[in-house]
Task: inverse folding
């Protein structure tokens, strides 16, 4: 009888142990690496603070990283930079330079850290509401990957629009000018 009770206790403990552990899921870093070949120009990757809203546009996918902003930004940029087909075009909230430590402790240190992480990249400042609206619109046509971090500083998100690495804006303008010239000569 003791053996049966011990066996049942062991089985019960094993079942409880398995039930308490969440199902294994791929890490967000693996998701970025896995998804990168599918992403192209007009897709976005956002690295956002913990209060960023869960958007409902069909193309917006949100993943909780349970990690820090700077690590996520560096990891995403490293993956983008190692791709053969896309390059990052970075925007940040225009409000961030006006947030003070008295209202958001740690914001000055964050600005220094994110500045170092983004050294060498041009960063466009855009109002937060415009960025969110742009993402909502983009998400109705293209995939947007949102990586939610544990950072609790407002207006700290990094918005990365992917652009074609092997075709520049200047090349596009030259081609369009030639097309326009060819069309006018045929009329």
Result:
């Amino acid at each position: 009888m003791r053996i049966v009770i011990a066996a049942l206790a062991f089985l019960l403990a094993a079942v409880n142990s398995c039930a308490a552990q969440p199902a294994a899921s791929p890490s967000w870093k693996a998701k970025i690496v896995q998804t990168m070949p599918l992403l192209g120009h007009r897709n976005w990757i956002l690295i956002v603070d913990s209060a960023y809203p869960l958007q409902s546009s069909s193309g917006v996918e949100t993943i909780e990283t349970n990690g820090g902003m700077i690590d996520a930004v560096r990891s995403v940029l490293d993956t983008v930079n190692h791709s053969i087909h896309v390059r990052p075009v970075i925007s940040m909230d225009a409000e961030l330079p006006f947030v003070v430590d008295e209202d958001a402790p740690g914001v000055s240190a964050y600005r220094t850290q994110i500045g170092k992480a983004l050294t060498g990249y041009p960063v466009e400042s855009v109002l937060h509401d415009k960025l969110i609206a742009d993402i909502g619109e983009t998400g109705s046509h293209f995939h947007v990957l949102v990586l939610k971090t544990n950072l609790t500083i407002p207006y700290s998100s990094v918005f990365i629009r992917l652009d074609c690495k092997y075709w520049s804006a200047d090349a596009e303008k030259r081609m369009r000018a030639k097309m326009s010239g060819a069309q006018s000569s045929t009329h």
The helical segments are 2-20, 28-35, 69-81, 107-117, 128-138, 169-185.
